[in-house]
């Protein structure tokens, strides 16, 4: 769940469609919670009342409470309890402290049940799970955990046990393909790994200049726009790309050796996000 910087209230009629378009134009066409690309429909989530119907009546004061959401997060969202639970919203100051981590786990037990509830299929899979980042502030970890549970970011089929991860899908959900967020997240991770492997293989003979970097930005943008999950891409880069090599590719004019984690995150952000903020980004308009 990447941190978001929401702009001030736009000067437009406070309608569902107008706010949905304004939010995706400002933040990118991705779900604010699972980060899946919003290729079809954008839903609005209200931090106090939850998922909004398309005919919801909105006012200017609602802008600060709204975030764009995909249908799968909307279908899974639990009963929201803003008065009794701590949530770390992606546009909050706490989100800037990176309270979430994206962890690839192999040998995840994946089971599909038959109509009678018996195991009809079982295999080992790899998935990327959203987990609270290790933090001495217990409130931060609790808030992150509540967000993951609120939207069932790892699907309702996950047993929430990192030591023995298991995904058990009932027959009806398997047939109807009700939630593909885990599958799409590992797909994004694997695409990022292939990209880093290609960069590492080509690095010894690369002529790195501004034109090369711009082409890398464009390639990353095209790949991410189709699938989303920016934090998953970042996790794969951090795990598979040597920091100094990445610094030389993205910022060849820099001479200082990259050592600090926050500098590394900034460079990955530049590679994966900054290109999408350029003026060439496709904008939707309300008709």
Structure summarized in a few sentences:
With 287 residues, this protein is α+β, with helices and mostly antiparallel strands.
Task: Give a structural overview.
With about 290 residues, the chain is α+β, with helices and mostly antiparallel strands. It has 3 domains: about 15-95, no CATH class; about 95-135 and about 150-180, no CATH class; about 180-275, no CATH class. Helix content is about 40%, strand content about 15%. The chain has 9 helices and 6 strands. The chain has helices at about 15-25, 70-75, 140-150, 170-175, 180-200, 210-225, 230-240, 245-250, 260-270, and strands at about 45, 50, 65-70, 100-115, 120-130, 165-170. Strand 1 (about 45) and strand 2 (about 50) form a beta hairpin. Helix 5 runs parallel beside helix 7, helix 7 (about 230-240) crosses helix 9 and helix 8 (about 245-250) crosses helix 9. Mean pLDDT is about 80; it is low at about 250-265 and about 275-285.
Keyword list:
287 residues; alpha+beta; 3 domains; three-stranded antiparallel sheet; three-stranded mixed sheet; 38% helix; globular; disordered C terminus
Task: Give the SSE map.
Elements: H1 16-27, E1 43-46, E2 50-51, E3 66-69, H2 71-76, E4 100-113, E5 119-132, H3 138-150, E6 166-169, H4 171-176, H5 181-202, H6 210-227, H7 230-240, H8 243-250, H9 261-272
Parallel strand pairs: 4-6
Antiparallel strand pairs: 1-2, 1-3, 4-5
Helix pairs in contact: 5-7, 7-9, 8-9
């Amino acid at each position: 769940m990447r941190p978001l910087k929401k702009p001030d209230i736009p000067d437009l009629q406070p309608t569902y469609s107008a706010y949905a378009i304004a939010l995706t134009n400002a933040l990118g066409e991705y779900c604010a919670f699972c980060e899946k690309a919003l290729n079809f429909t954008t839903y609005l989530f209200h931090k106090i009342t939850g998922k909004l119907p398309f005919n919801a009546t909105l006012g200017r004061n609602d802008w600060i409470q709204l975030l764009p959401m995909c249908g799968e997060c909307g279908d899974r969202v639990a009963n929201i309890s803003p008065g009794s639970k701590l949530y770390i919203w992606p546009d909050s100051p706490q989100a800037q402290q990176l309270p979430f981590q994206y962890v690839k786990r192999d040998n995840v037990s994946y089971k599909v049940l038959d109509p009678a509830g018996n195991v009809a299929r079982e295999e080992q899979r790899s998935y990327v799970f959203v987990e609270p980042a290790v933090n001495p502030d217990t409130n931060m970890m609790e808030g992150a955990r509540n967000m993951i549970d609120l939207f069932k970011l790892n699907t309702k089929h996950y047993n929430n046990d990192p030591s023995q991860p298991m995904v058990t899908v009932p027959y009806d959900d398997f047939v109807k393909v009700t939630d593909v967020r885990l599958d799409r997240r590992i797909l994004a991770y694997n695409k990022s790994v292939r990209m880093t492997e290609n960069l590492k293989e080509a690095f010894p003979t690369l002529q790195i200049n501004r034109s090369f970097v711009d082409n890398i930005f464009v390639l990353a943008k095209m790949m991410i726009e189709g699938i989303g999950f920016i934090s998953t891409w970042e996790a794969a880069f951090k795990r598979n790309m040597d920091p100094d090599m990445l610094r030389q590719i993205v910022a060849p004019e820099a001479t200082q050796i990259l050592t600090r984690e926050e500098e590394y995150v900034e460079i990955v952000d530049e590679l994966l996000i900054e290109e999408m903020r350029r003026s060439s980004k496709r904008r939707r308009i309300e008709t």
